[in-house]
Amino acid sequence: MEPKIIEGGVVENAVEAVQAVPEKVQASAAALKDMISSLTGMAVDFGLKLLAAIVVLAGGMWIAKRIAKSFKRMLERRGADASLVSFLGSFTNILLRIFVVIISLATVGVQMTSIVAVLGAASLAVGMALSGTMQNFAGGIIIMFLKPFKVDDIIVTTDGKVGVVKKIMIFTTELYTFDNQVVLLPNGALSNSQITNLSMTDTRRADLSVAISYGDDVDVARKEILAIIKADKRVLKKPEPVVFVAELGESAVILGVRYWTSSADMLPSRGIMMEEIYKKLPKKKIHFPFPQMDVHVKK
Q: Number of structural domains, the chain?
């Protein structure tokens, strides 16, 4: 086989290409080095900003909490209503926390215009997703302005929950029942439902029912019950207490007992009154009948 002859120009081009390889490698290495250096600088810069943002977030949350507490103490010193103090304190705390989060994002490098745009776009979606929460917020404002109840009032809800109002917050109201349970009631439902406020007035009437046997002297029972009621210092003299025949039951005469006390004394006095009536009426030959039925058999 005859050997192929390579022209001189081709050989020269090949030699130049081989010689250019180290230069390209060096150029690529330099570019890679510059890119790594740039990425390293960017990472260091972002890391420092992130660290600063974390510091701002942690410190800001602590400061926001302190400011909210100071604000609540200031309102308390000025004699503001306890319900208003609780609501505004909770609202101020949340508002300051949102502000701290925004400042932290700006520290990282997020543009404020971007934050505003995101908040604007998210507000619609959040508002639709949290429509119930927004109703609770609006309900809290309504409760604060209309004041159907306030902190330390005793209320009864439509579903039968009875307790003392301890806190009125932005979205919920904290209720302590008499068996020491904590119930969180949504403000939206509270502002749109029937609420019975047992502490709205200074005085309340207590209504008791006492069953005595047929044949017992009603006047003696009335006199003794009135003596028991009037001996209790918590009972008000005006309006005067009354005892009357309320019903002729199947196996007993039902006496209605009514007397007035302060709102705070009404519930505690009921149990004591019933106990005193139970102890003293039998001494006057007044009996408490058992449910009974007379059966007549015809032969």
A: 3
